[in-house]
Structure formats: C-alpha cells, structure tokens
C-alpha cells in the first residue's frame, strides 16, 4: 500500500518585488498510514507553508507530491477541492468555526460539500462529536463555548469524512497548558485507537511529545526527522 | 452540490444577518413597488382616456373658432367668436353628416331651493344625446320646439342632481335658478363618470343653445359645433366638406387664415395617447432608476459581505467547497435577496395602487404580466449585481482568506 503522502524535492518560492523568499528549499518526506508526526522548528522555517502544500490549499513551485499515490500537480483546482472535502481534515490554531452557526452545523460542513444527504450528515456529525466528547454541545453556538470546546468541534469537523490525513497547524497555540494537554490526548487517542494519520505543527516540546515522530524544519529544509522513542512502539 | 443545498446555505447566511438582509431588500422593494404603482397609474390613465374617447363616439368632428389677430396679438384657437348657430343647419345639410349640435358653455352658480352649486351650463341642440351616445335617466330631453321657443328648460347631469337635490327627491318639474332666470327641470342624464382628462362629465346642466345665448352669454356666436359623421369612413370626407363650407360661409379668401378649426377625435385620441405614452415612459424610467439603485445597494452589501466573510470563505474552501460552489452560494444569496425583495415589492405595489385608486380617485390598472415581469426583473438585478461580488469571493485564495483578519 502506498504512503499517504510522499514529497520529493519540494520547493516553494514567494516572489517579493525583485527579490524572492525561499520558504521551502527542497523537502523530502514520506508519511505512512497511521503515523502521528509533530513538525517543529523556528518561526519562518516553512512549517505552515509545508502544511498548506500538503493540504492542497497551495501549490508547490517545483518538486513532486504524491497523495495516496496520485500526482497532485496534475489535479485541477476542483479535484483538489474534492480531495480536501473527502480525504483531508484541517484543524487551525484559531478554530475557524462559522459564527452564529450551531456546533452540529459546523461539524456537518465538509459533508455538505461532499454532497451527503442531511440525515446522514447529522448521524455522522453526532457520532464524531461523541468521539471527541462534545455531543452535548450540538446546539450551542461557537461564542457560547470555551477555546478547548471550540477546538474539539473543529477536530470533530476534521473527522467527519474519515480522512486519510489530519493536518493541524498549531492546534494548541491558543489554549492553556491543561486544555492543550487534553486536546493532545484526544489526538493521541484518535491516532492510537482509530488509526488516524495526523501531522501537526507545534512550537512546544510538551505538545510534540505526544507524537510518534518529530520532524524539525530550519530555513526551508528538514533539519532532523526522528522517532519519539517514548511513543513510537 | 445540488440546488436545494445551495439555496439552504444562502437562506441560512441571510437569516444570520436579518437586519442587513432586510435593509438590502428594501431597495428592491421600493424599486419594484414604484414600477408597479407607476405602471398601474399610467395604464389606468391610458385605458380611461381610450374609453372616454370611445364613449364620445369615434365619428365625432369638432369645429372650434380660430384665432384672431388684434393689434398684432393673436389669440389661440377658440379666441375668435366666429361660429354662429346658423352654421349648424348648414353643416347638417352636407352628405355624410348624421347630426350637428352647437355648443355654448358657461360656468355659473345654480340654485335650487336651499342648495346651490357651481357647475357647467352647456347649451346644446336636441341631437346632443345622440351625438354623445348619452342616454337619459329620467324625464325627456330638449326638443326642437324648446330651442325654437328659447324655453327655460334644463336637463341635469347626475352630479348636479345629487348636489341640488340631496334628499333623493325627483328633480323633474322642479325649478332651478341660473343667473337669475328660473329653468324647469325636464330630465336627468345617466351617469357618465370621469372624462379622460379626469373631469367629472356628470357635473353639467344642459339647456337649449338658444336659451344659453339669449339668457346667459348674450352673444350671437357659439363655442363649438359638434358633428357626428354617419360612419367612421365618412369622418375625413366630412371634415374636408365642413372646412370648405365654413370657409365659404365665413367669406374667407385663400391667403387669409381660416377663422375656425376642424378636428376629429382620432386626432384627439392620438394626441392623448401619445402624451400618455410619454408620461408612462417617463414614469417607468424613474421607477427603473430606483430599481437600479436597489440593485447597486445589493452589490454594495454583497461586497461588504464578501470582505466580512473572507475567513468563512477560506474555511469553506479548505473543507472542500469548489470555486464554483462559492460563486453559486453568493450569487444565490443575492438572487434570493432580490427575488424576495421583488415579491414583497409587488405586494407593496399592489397595496399602494389600491391606496392611490382610493385616495386620489385615479383610475388604475395592473397588467398581470407586469407582476411576473417585476419579480423576474428583480431576480435578474440580483444576478447582474450579485455576479461581481460572487466572482470576487470565488477567486479568493484559500490560504490568504484563512489568514485574513
Ligand atoms: N504569502 C507569502 N508571501 C511571501 N512570503 C511568504 C508568504 N507566506 C510565507 N512567506 C515566507 O515564507 C517563510 C516561511 O513561512 P511559514 O509561514 O511557512 O513559516 P512558519 O514556519 O509557519 O513560521 P511560524 O512558526 O511563525 O508560523 C517565511 O519567511 C515567510 O515570510
Ligand atoms: Mg506557521
């Protein structure tokens, strides 16, 4: 079975007037099914840029990117949108829930674009909300919830299409230490018990400690790529 | 994504911003209501002009006195006093003429018992009811002998009846005083309603033209000659004949201008309907501009909405919305806004039309096609003015949209 993600020589260059910024200067990485990767590195090292390209929100300047064995460079914008709605899950630092929209409807959103009928959407959404422990909040609005609860809604939303990969860019960045630990325990459980592949960006070693593999970026390159001996079995 | 889901998303988004959605709709509501009301008034006026012209009889020919020049100053048509009652019988001899009536008009106060009323006193010939196709309601009409004897008899229009005899008693046989002379009421006319110009045609007292000249104007001339041609085809030949005859009778030598003017009602009808059309176009133009302003309002709000919801759009794209889906969503929002606005506008317009008809007593008519056209047109306004903002939303880059503050 092919890896979920395989990138080789991935480059991303942003033009800046006459100059250019090399955000990624040739990255090679493979993510196998069931992995739990923490991406670390100093600010500006290209972590978010890498996540965006892997998440098909942006295109690489050069290099190859195979997603589940398919060459992403050949995908049209619509095909990339379809892969996002069916095979990928996103969790953001700022939760990004729709305001004035119930938790349940927020969780249902990716399925709306995947074209699922409404009863089925509801059932799946409630099931995923149960997994992340917030089923009771289904009718609540985002502004009635704590940061930790909102992030759980966002995680439930990333789970609804049974994604091949969940991408989380600093998911605990806005949370206090205790809540971060709860959220990381949830990610860890999802990975361990439901075999969900996760790649998350963090600055905090405590958070990265939950992952099974730690990749460190510097200046657009991978500096190190090591298993987390405590977690990796 | 199917239509129902798109519609649901659009309605959800609009409901989330109720006040703003309603205010945006208001522009379209006012625009469509304005269109409906102006069209209703315009069409109502045109139809009533047409009806009153038809009720006058299309075979009608009117002779007016011409203008006169006095010390270099020319009066308008009707300024001269050149038509005599003797012109009437002469015209009546012409082939193709069915009937002729001289007309002498005076405004005067009329008194009956304790009531008095300012009205139009019209001196006419017995042929008048035939020419105007105006049936009597009661009593009898003026006769040839009434004219010959300069009789003090009168036939009343319904408005005058209700003003002078408000208790409902029959006016027949009663005496009314016109300019100090007692006239006996011998008949009443059926109600004719408003003329195309909005005049109450029933506000009239008919008396023999001879009596009007003798007792009211003191002149030997009349204001008009009304002529009815036997058939519509006869109108033009009769008009030519009458012109030639009157020129002869009034001894007009060619370079001299005619001292009278002969017109038929087709000319009136055309003039009336062309003024009507101009008015209608003008009104419709003003209404269309207000609809346009409503459309620009929608575009404005949609632009604000797209900017305000940039992060939302980014998120929707991240979780799998295609560009086309985003475009459809925003376009649908603007179409829903404008169509609901249009539907409300139709209702407001209908209510407004009823109000205008009741309060201003203007004739109104709503061509049913306009109702559908208005709603359809507002939907099109929604598409037209919603497209640019929707396009803008669809072309956002997801990462930039997500990063937007
Ligand atoms: N849209 C852009 N235009 C120009 N330069 C960009 C753009 N996005 C990112 N960059 C540059 O690319 C480099 C990598 O940025 P990136 O956001 O990937 O860093 P990061 O590792 O996520 O940093 P942080 O930990 O602060 O989030 C930086 O130098 C940044 O300035
Ligand atoms: Mg970053």
Question: Can you describe what's shown?
Answer:
The complex is a heterodimer of chains A (233) and B (405). Chain A is α/β, with parallel strands linked by helices and 233 residues long. Chain A has one domain (5-227): P-loop containing nucleotide triphosphate hydrolases (Rossmann fold, 3-Layer(aba) Sandwich), CATH 3.40.50.300. Helices cover 34% and strands 28% of the residues of chain A. Chain A has seven helices and ten strands. Chain A has helices at 47-54, 77-87, 103-114, 118-131, 147-159, 177-194, 205-208, and strands spanning 5-16, 19-31, 36-40, 62-67, 70-71, 88-92, 165-169, 198-201, 213-218, 221-227. In chain A, a hairpin with a 2-residue loop joins β4 and β5. In chain A, α3 packs parallel to α5. The longest helix of chain A has 18 residues, at 177-194. The two termini of chain A are 21 Å apart. Chain B is α+β, with helices and mostly antiparallel strands and 405 residues long. Chain B has two domains: 3-52 and 271-403, no CATH class; 59-264, no CATH class. In chain B, the strands form two sheets. A six-stranded mixed β-barrel of chain B has the order 4-5-10-7-9-8. Chain B has a two-stranded antiparallel sheet with strand order 2-3. In chain B, α2 (18-56) packs across α11 and α9 packs across α11 (323-359). Chain B is elongated and about 100 Å long. The structure holds adenosine-5'-triphosphate and magnesium ion (MG).
Keywords:
heterodimer, A: about 230 residues, alpha/beta, Rossmann fold, six-stranded mixed β-sheet, four-stranded antiparallel β-sheet, 7 helices, about 30% strand, globular, B: about 400 residues, alpha+beta, 2 domains, six-stranded mixed β-barrel, two-stranded antiparallel sheet, elongated, binds adenosine-5'-triphosphate, binds magnesium ion
């Amino acid at each position: 079975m092919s890896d979920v993600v395989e990138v080789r020589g991935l480059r991303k260059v942003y033009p800046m007037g006459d100059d250019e910024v090399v955000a990624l200067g040739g990255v090679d990485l493979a993510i196998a099914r069931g992995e739990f990767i923490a991406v670390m590195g100093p600010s500006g090292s290209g972590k978010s840029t890498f996540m965006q390209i892997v998440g098909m929100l942006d295109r690489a300047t050069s290099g190859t990117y195979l997603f589940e064995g398919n060459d992403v460079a050949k995908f049209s914008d619509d095909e990339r949108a379809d892969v996002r709605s069916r095979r990928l899950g996103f969790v953001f630092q700022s939760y990004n829930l729709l305001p004035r929209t119930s938790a349940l409807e927020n969780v249902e959103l990716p399925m709306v674009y995947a074209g699922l009928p409404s009863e089925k959407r509801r059932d799946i959404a409630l099931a995923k909300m149960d997994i992340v422990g917030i089923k009771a909040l289904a009718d609540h609005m985002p502004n009635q919830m704590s940061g930790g609860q909102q992030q759980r809604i966002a995680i439930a939303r990333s789970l609804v299409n049974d994604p091949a990969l969940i991408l989380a860019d600093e998911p605990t960045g806005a949370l206090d230490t205790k809540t971060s630990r709860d959220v990381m325990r949830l990610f860890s459980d999802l990975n361990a018990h439901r075999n969900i592949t996760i790649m998350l960006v963090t600055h905090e070693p405590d958070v990265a400690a939950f992952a099974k593999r730690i990749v460190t970026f510097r200046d657009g390159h991978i500096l190190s790529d090591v298993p987390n001996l405590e977690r990796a079995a | 994504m199917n239509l129902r889901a798109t519609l649901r998303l659009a309605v959800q988004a609009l409901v989330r911003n109720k006040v703003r959605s309603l205010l945006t709709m208001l522009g379209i509501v006012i625009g469509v209501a304005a269109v409906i009301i102006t069209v209703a008034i315009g069409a109502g006026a045109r139809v009533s002009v047409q009806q009153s012209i038809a009720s006058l009889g299309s075979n009608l020919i009117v002779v007016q006195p011409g203008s006169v020049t006095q010390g270099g100053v020319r009066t308008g048509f009707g300024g001269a006093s050149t038509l005599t009652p003797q012109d009437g019988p002469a015209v009546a001899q012409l082939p193709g003429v069915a009937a002729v009536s001289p007309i002498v008009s005076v405004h005067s106060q009329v008194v009956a018992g304790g009531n008095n009323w300012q009205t139009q006193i019209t001196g006419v010939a017995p042929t008048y009811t035939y020419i105007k196709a105006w049936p009597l309601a009661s009593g009898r009409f003026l006769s040839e002998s009434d004219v010959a004897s300069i009789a003090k008899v009168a036939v009343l229009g319904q408005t005058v009846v209700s003003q002078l005899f408000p208790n409902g008693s029959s006016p027949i046989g009663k005496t009314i005083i016109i300019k100090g002379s007692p006239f006996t009421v011998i008949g009443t006319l059926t109600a004719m309603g408003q003329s195309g110009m909005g005049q109450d045609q029933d506000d009239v007292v008919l008396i023999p033209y001879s009596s009007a000249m003798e007792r009211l104007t003191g002149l030997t001339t009349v204001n008009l000659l009304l002529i009815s041609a036997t058939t519509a085809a006869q109108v033009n030949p009769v008009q030519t004949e009458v012109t030639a005859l009157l020129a002869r009778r009034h001894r007009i030598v060619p370079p001299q201008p005619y001292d009278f003017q002969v017109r038929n009602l087709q000319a009136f009808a055309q003039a009336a309907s062309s003024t009507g059309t101009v008015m209608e176009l003008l009104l419709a133009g003003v209404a269309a501009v207000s609809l346009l302003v409503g459309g620009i309002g929608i575009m404005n709000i949609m632009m604000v909405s797209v900017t305000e919801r940039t992060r939302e759009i980014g998120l929707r794209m991240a979780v799998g919305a295609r560009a086309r889906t985003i475009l459809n969503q925003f376009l649908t929002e603007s179409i829903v806004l404008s169509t609901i606005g249009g539907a409300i506008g139709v209702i407001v317009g209908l209510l407004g039309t009823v109000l205008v008809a009741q309060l201003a007593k203007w004739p109104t008519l709503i061509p049913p096609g306009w109702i559908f056209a208005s709603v359809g047109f507002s939907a099109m306004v929604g598409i037209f003015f919603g497209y640019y903002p929707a396009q803008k939303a669809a072309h956002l880059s997801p990462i930039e949209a997500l990063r937007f503050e």
